[in-house]
Design a protein that fits this description.
alpha/beta; Rossmann fold; 5-stranded parallel β-sheet; 5 helices
Length: 169
């Protein structure tokens, strides 16, 4: 059984500029420390990178698209255009082929890509752990939202939902 760290969408757009998530710098420090610990322990690391539409700030090649923590030679990057990276069946196949059976999922946005990719991983046969202090989203669920639940409430709900999905599989 091999556990890997899967870092979802830790890209410049969510942590810098006008659309950074609440408390983004604190989260970024925690993610960076977790990544350093994983690397030091020799844990496999998987980076998930969202490719936004051509006319968006997170379109491939745009500054807000860049991964904050660059990959090391032995680390994998999977790019995606949909919230669930496991919709690309090759992702699960490659991870299984590498002997990975468990994923520790961290990153952003809790209610979109973290949620969808975590549930997708569970459905693809992986054990998933999600630490509530290692994922976040926006108030109201979207940059600039002025109504709706707080980012904390949303992330708490996602945490419970992923744990419940994991327990029934």
């Amino acid at each position: 059984m091999t556990k890997a760290l899967m870092i979802v969408d830790v890209q410049a757009g969510a942590f810098f500029g006008p659309w950074k998530i609440p408390n983004s710098q604190d989260l970024l420090v925690r993610i960076g420390e977790r990544l350093m610990d994983a690397r030091e322990a020799g844990m496999p690391v998987i980076h998930i990178q969202n490719d936004g539409p051509d006319d968006s700030a997170d379109a491939p090649g745009e500054p807000m698209w860049e991964l904050i923590f660059g990959q090391k030679d032995n680390e994998i990057v999977f790019r995606k255009t949909k919230p669930n990276v496991f919709e690309n069946l090759e992702v699960g196949q490659e991870l299984h082929a590498r002997g990975i059976t468990e994923l520790e999922v961290i990153g952003v946005q809790s209610d979109i890509c973290v949620r969808e990719s975590s549930i997708g991983a569970i459905d693809a046969g992986f054990k998933v752990s999600l630490d509530r202090n290692m994922h976040a989203t926006y108030d109201g669920g979207w940059p600039g939202a002025t109504e709706g639940p707080s980012a904390t409430e949303i992330s708490d709900r996602v945490q419970a939902e992923v744990e419940a999905h994991s327990n029934k599989n």
